[in-house]
């Protein structure tokens, strides 16, 4: 039988790493609300995927503003997603070995994608420019 | 009771993965997870396609042309819907976390999120799919 829990918000972690990640999810979530929805609006509504090509990105990246915007979006979205995935693995992958394996894969994958993404944003130099 | 304990008592199996306490609260929670995973997977793909810009205009332009295909345009609308739901339900979670009284109205907050979703999503989907129509 499933016992009913007291009605209430998600139990707030008492402290330590879990409290920081709980707090991070709320703060990054609010920032992503602006950054991600802003990104979607600019790229998919004001512009359209038809307009996006090499020249579009090259002209967009002539100013540091969009590089900073994209870097912030990349880091926050990736960390928010990684922590979400970590929570889901913790919930569903019960055997110790499998959990260790899946979490390790997740963190390695996260590090690789964070590196690739940051390198592109920071080092992109338009051809012929 | 912790979610782990609930799942332990329910005895495992795929249904107990998503079956928690039923109703709007459970639906909001399942959708939050599903949309979260969906957006996360797209983010990984998007990092790869954007990184191809380092290989020059020919490679990058060829790859992003994929996104112009009708199938991908529909995927784009689904992605926008997933981000929008995740954002709206995220606001709902933060409201419930910060204002304990709100737990009594968590269903109403879910219905409010659903209404805002409908108001924003359908006009947006129309605008995004208009080139295909």
The name of the CATH architecture of chain B is: Up-down Bundle
Q: Which class do the helix and strand fractions of chain A yield?
A: mainly alpha
Q: Rg of chain A to the nearest angstrom?
A: 19 Å
CATH architecture of chain A: Up-down Bundle
Number of strands of chain B: 0
The chain-level mean pLDDT of chain A equals: 89
CATH superfamily of chain A: Fumarate reductase/succinate dehydrogenase, transmembrane subunit
Radius of gyration of chain B (CA) equals: 19 Å
Oligomer: heterodimer
Helix proportion of chain B: over 70%
Query: Can you identify the CATH superfamily of chain B?
Result: Fumarate reductase/succinate dehydrogenase, transmembrane subunit
Structural class call of chain B reads mainly alpha
> What level of helicity do the residues of chain A show?
over 70%
Can you tell me the CATH class of chain B?
A: Mainly Alpha
Q: What would the keywords be for this entry?
A:
heterodimer; A: 129 residues; mainly alpha; 74% helix; B: 133 residues; 77% helix
Structure, explained:
Residues 1-5 of chain A have low confidence and may be disordered. Chain A is elongated. In chain A, α1 crosses α3 (64-92) and α3 (64-92) runs antiparallel to α4 (96-123). Chain A is built from 4 helices and no strands. Chain A has a single domain (17-123), classed as 3 helical TM bundles of succinate and fumarate reductases (Up-down Bundle), CATH 1.20.1300. Chain A is mainly α and 129 residues long. By secondary structure, chain B is mainly alpha-helical. Chain B has a single domain (21-132), classed as 3 helical TM bundles of succinate and fumarate reductases. Chain B has helices at residues 3-10, 14-18, 23-51, 57-64, 70-98, 106-129. In chain B, α3 (23-51) crosses α5 and α5 (70-98) packs antiparallel against α6. Chain B is elongated. At the A-B interface, α1, α2, α3 and α4 of A face α1, α3, α4, α5 and α6 of B.
């Amino acid at each position: 039988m499933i016992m009913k829990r007291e009605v209430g918000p998600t139990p707030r972690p008492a402290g330590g790493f879990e409290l920081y990640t709980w707090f991070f999810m709320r703060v990054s979530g609010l920032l992503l609300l602006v950054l991600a929805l802003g990104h979607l609006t600019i790229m998919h509504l004001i512009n359209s995927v038809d307009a996006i090509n090499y020249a579009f990105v090259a002209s967009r990246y002539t100013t540091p503003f969009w590089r900073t915007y994209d870097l912030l979006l990349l880091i926050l979205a990736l960390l928010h997603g990684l922590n979400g995935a970590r929570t889901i693995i913790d919930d569903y992958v019960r055997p110790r070995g499998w959990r260790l394996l899946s979490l390790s894969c997740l963190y390695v994958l996260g590090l690789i994608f964070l590196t690739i993404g940051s390198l592109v944003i920071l080092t992109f130099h338009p051809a012929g420019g | 009771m912790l979610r782990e304990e609930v799942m332990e008592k329910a005895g495992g199996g795929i249904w107990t993965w998503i079956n928690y306490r039923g109703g709007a609260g459970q639906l909001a929670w399942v959708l939050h997870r599903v949309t979260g995973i969906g957006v996360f997977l797209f983010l990984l793909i998007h990092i790869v396609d954007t990184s191809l810009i380092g290989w020059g205009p020919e490679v990058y332009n060829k790859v992003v042309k994929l996104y112009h295909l009708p199938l991908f345009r529909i995927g784009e609308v689904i992605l926008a819907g997933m981000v929008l739901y995740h954002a709206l339900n995220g606001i709902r979670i933060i409201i419930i976390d910060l204002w304990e009284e709100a737990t009594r109205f968590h269903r109403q907050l879910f219905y409010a999120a659903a209404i805002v979703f409908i108001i924003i999503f359908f006009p947006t989907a129309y605008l995004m799919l208009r080139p295909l129509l």
